[in-house]
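#onboarding

Welcome to the new folks! Below is a worked example of what a typical request in this channel looks like: someone posts a single protein sequence, and someone else replies with the predicted structure as tokens. Don't worry about understanding the tokens yet, we'll cover that in week two.

Example request:
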Amino acid sequence: MLFSSMTFIYVFLPIVCAIYLCVRQGLKNHVLLIASIIFYAWGEPSYLAIMLLTILINYIGANYISRSKKNTHRKEILALTIVLNLSFLFYFKYFNFVVENINGLFKSDIHFIKVIMPIGISFYTFQALSYLIDVYRGEVKVQRNIYKLALYICLFPQLIAGPIVKYRDVDEQISNRDVDFPKVVYGIKRFIIGLSKKMLLANTVGAIADKIFTQPVDQIDLPLSWLGAVSYTLQLYYDFSGYSDMAIGLGYIFGFQFLENFNYPFISKSISEYWRRWHISLGSWFRDYMFLPISRALSLSNSYSWLLQKIGRKKANYVLSFIALFVVWFCMGFWHGAAWTFIVYGLYNGFFIFMEILSGWNKNFKSLKIRFFQHIYTILVFICGLVIFRADTMTYACQYLMTMFGLKTNSVLLYQWLYYIDRIEVIAILTGIICATPVFSKMLYVDEKHKVLRSFINIWLIILFILSTSFIAASTYNPFIYFRF
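Example response:
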């Protein structure tokens, strides 16, 4: 079930909200848990057992870890539970990729039934792992109530596509939270903004990107290649940030306060800063559970001690950072999908981040000229990276990038400009560029005393909601990109 569907907006959500707000406090978690299971089973009934099994495995594993007194036993239980979690993820997400590459590499002919990936498995697996690891580290208390743990892992606002919520951020809220009128109103407004991003901007510019990227590269010239790249960048941003806004808004309606997942990434002045603003929950997850542990392990290794003696502390630290970044960004890219383009995309970002560390380019400079060039560099690097992200093959991505920078010219076009873009789509692109900056960032935080402005914003939100639902009813084009990840 999509948030941007008539069934969800006009049937599922009103029924759940009505029941949730009417029942006593002790039953609210049960209502949300049942609603979350129905929400997931609506679109993926055959894979519901996988999610429930994940909940059971992590419940048992975390309880054993908390009760075990010997550190070696705790490590063994942690390792076993992590392997079980990742085995589900590997089989359903990466099995096809691995077998296809084995067949291609060794010219073999291994016959296999193609596995279909359950929606949301990447997200709820990472949430389960964060809970398990935090229990092992002693950063959170083990959850003895399996229903509360189940609610954390499968809470429907963030179940399908995040944000990836760490258990420590919602531990207290699961047991004790308030639902009041201001939170519900804010949540509704935030949901409308996210829905508008998705339906009015992401879907509109996405239609342009799909038309261009489905053409052979030799049928695309330089201006069209840039139009496709910019359109896809805006589509991905508004598609995913819109979904995050809807998830955060729904969280407020039910008394949860999830952390932000996007913070105007296009105003960044380095790729390092970009990834602190883009998909924040994923970046913080890899930082806390991969980068820092890997860096710590490497700094305590004999190899690092040897490097210190041979090349000195500064260069040894660069080597350590390079290794840790390589592993993390390889996994970050692979997390997005089972394809070489995603792996290259991850390593591509890791390379630029490492070069920024080496050169000091990620620092804040006082010079406006340098800051301007930092901003342009960041946007260009990320747009080019998303071409790799969007392409089906690396060959297509390389040829597309060559076309973008005039290294490959195509004189004969299959379709002219008017086929790809019209007035509405031009307005959507311009609106998307403006709204990607913090121009309207304080729109929902207008003080009570500004009654006229608040009334204007409320009327505008109602108009956006009507337009968005009209687009849902009238359009058959309503993809959600991050479902594939």
